[in-house]
Amino acid sequence: MTVRTRVAPSPTGDPHVGTAYIALFNLCFARAHGGQFVLRIEDTDQTRSTASSEQAILDSLRWLGLGWDEGPDIGGEYGPYRQSERMEIYGGYAQQLVDEGKAFVCYRRPEELNELRESRRAAGNSTALKYSDLALPADEVERRQAAGEPYVIRMIVPEEAGVCAVQDLLRGEIELEWSMVDAQILLKSDGMPTYHLANVVDDHLMEITHVIRGEEWINSAPKHQLLYEYFGWDMPVLCHLPLLRNPDKSKLSKRKNPTSILYYQRMGFLPEALCNYLGRMGWSMPDEREKFSLSEMQESFDIQRVSLGGPIFDVEKLRWLNGMWIREDLSQEQLAQRLVEWAFNAEQLAAVLPHLQQRMETLSDFAPQSAFLVSGELSLSPEQFTELGAETEQTLKTLQFALWRLEALQDWSRDAVWDAVKTLADSLDIKVRDFLAPLFIAISGSRASISVVDAMSLLGPDMSRARIRHAIDTLGGVSKKAAKRLEKEYQAV
Fold first, then answer.
1. 254 known ligand binder
2. CATH topology of domain 1-70+244-343
3. Domain locations in the chain?
4. CATH architecture group of domain 372-492
5. pLDDT band at 310 (very low <50, low <70, confident <90, very high)
6. Is domain 89-187 classified as CATH 2.30.110.10?
7. How many angstroms separate the CA atoms of 40 and 275, rounded?
8. pLDDT tens per residue, range 418-438
9. Residue 382 in contact with residue 477, Cβ under 8 Å?
10. What CA–CA distances, in Å, run from 476 to 320, 382, 388?
11. Would residue 254 show up in a list of annotated catalytic residues for this protein?
């Protein structure tokens, strides 16, 4: 048997360090067993999936050195490797389950589903809905079908009390209550498969032997195991890795830690160091050394050395490790070349110079005027914002609203960023100049800089959003209570 592993990210946002973490362990496991590593793009969410996000995933994983044997960009024997290009496959498998009485067509409306869940919650039961909860009388099904009402296909799951035993490579046997498992949607009303159906079908057809994924998927394992049984297929070996955690032990999130790979690239971290650090997340070399290369990790990899305790993603620890790589593994000539490639390459200079040339009188003006574009976290003070004349509460509101709007922005072109902030300012009945004033400081650390919209375009979404979050923290942050109030106001505009 040839070992085959995969990573299957969704192209719906910035490439996440969690994706790289899972990719790294899948790659190392495959290489340790002389196997193959597959990259598959799970883009069934057509409203949020974008080509630019997919490209960012490919670029960032390659930057880290995490190459793949098969994928959407290089092809392979089991392609295509985008789910959107495999759509004709899934409907047939869903219909097969319906024909065999293992799934059913469900015409329930959203409001009915809400009522059913509320009723179960009020009775002190799990909100997982079963076939008996969802089934409609035959004549009502015919009426809704004749009216052309939308429907989904759901899988039938056990209704009786009991447990599903799932085998895990690291955790042994895991028992999960069937009472907590709902009649999962397999095919949505628009004909798109859900992750659960597409994941199982694709893993089988691509002959994936080991599914190494985050522990957040443990609760979905009974559904997947049941689907394998329904289809009569051998199930891959499951292995659920511990989730990356913030220093406070909460799940790694962008609100407490930068999570985009592109952010760390823009900050000037070395790919070798970031890959090394991700390798240390819950795993250790046999000799326990902290600094090791990707090839060294592959040569020594044993998945049984994974610790199930939640690994802490500590940026300060990453900085320390990155410093070791800079000092110990780069000659001065190599460091100079890295600096040129990172900040002073021809493409970067070509983008920056049009904005600075009109402001320069001497060549020495370039460094101070461009410093914020090649800096990481800026040194800010509350006084810089109070000098604008607005109350701190109002400034926090402006920054928080801008952050939410920019977090939802998928197109990061200069015009798109401008339209986003201008539309928001107009909705709040605030002059654009006043709305942008605190953003100027958050993004550039100064009130006198190139256009803040141009600056955000040059910095990119990851660094821009991180700097706005840093500005909010500098002003004392937004409490949970205030965040709820602001979110209501934001939704209203």
1. yes
2. Rossmann fold (3.40.50)
3. 1-70+244-343, 89-187, 372-492
4. Orthogonal Bundle (1.10)
5. confident
6. no
7. 20
8. 999 999 999 999 999 999 999
9. no
10. 27, 9, 17
11. yes
